Amino acid sequence: MLYAAVHMDGVLRCSRYAFGPNRLHFCGPDASREIWDYVNDGYTDFGLQKLLMGFEALYPYLQHIAIENHIGDPFDPRVVEAYWLGNDLLAQVSKRALHTHLTDTFRLQDKYPGQPYRTLENRIGRGLLPNHNHHVINVPHAMAGAPSDNEPSFMDACRISWGTVTAVSGPSITIEYEPLYRIGDLLSLGNPIQKKLVRRLEADYDFDMLQPGQMVSMHWDIPCEVITKVEADRLRLHTLDAIRIANVDKQ
């Protein structure tokens, strides 16, 4: 279904987060070049919206958040932010509605019967949210060609991370961020480490003027956008909550 009113800023922002896994052929249609062109041109149209609608998990989650918040457009900027970074829209999605969504839309009960599905139901009861990091850390899923989604290195790359820029050198950005580790059976954010990223997306309004001390989000080692401390703190809280939910099963 195409929606009449489309918030193109939401579409463009969404595409910046979707580019990383699409580039690796993990999610969505084979369209990384097209998405890259849209982002670097700072241009959106219904063609980009249609590409994003082809992402198997992303678009259904956007639809679900929008419906539960009585928002007509899944690409409304508030909905896009809720899915990728987290905001107060997530609190309006009931546990029952999320259970129905995961069962009917993703058919996870058929794909992961028995104990894996019962574990997922327990996690919904503990507060699982329709947010990307919650999904990566807590919901069974498989990507063609991807490593095991139980590996912390996979989850660390697949989740939306945040970090403080410590150096900028041409296309390279060094950031300090908290990696995701598994200590015994429990997941945890580790002490901050330095990580060097290659800037693959351009944006006149942020990355061209990037300075040490600013904060950025990243997905599959792709810097997505400059974010505020408020956004970073909110993202961290949602990530820690997702880790808490997952760790209960291991304690």
Descriptive overview:
The chain has 251 residues and is α+β, with helices and mostly antiparallel strands. The chain folds into two domains: 8-138, no CATH class; 152-248, SH3 type barrels (Roll). It has helices spanning 8-23, 32-41, 46-52, 58-68, 77-84, 95-105, 108-111, 115-125, 132-138, 152-158, 229-248, and strands spanning 161-169, 172-177, 180-183, 186-189, 193-198, 215-219, 222-227. The protein has a five-stranded antiparallel beta sheet. A two-stranded antiparallel ribbon has the order 3-4. β3 (180-183) and β4 (186-189) form a beta hairpin. The chain is globular and about 50 Å long.
How many helical elements? 11
Strand content: 15-25%
| Principal-axes shape call | globular
Strand order of the largest sheet: 5-2-1-6-7
Descriptive tags:
alpha+beta; 251 residues; two-stranded antiparallel ribbon; 2 domains; globular; SH3 type barrels
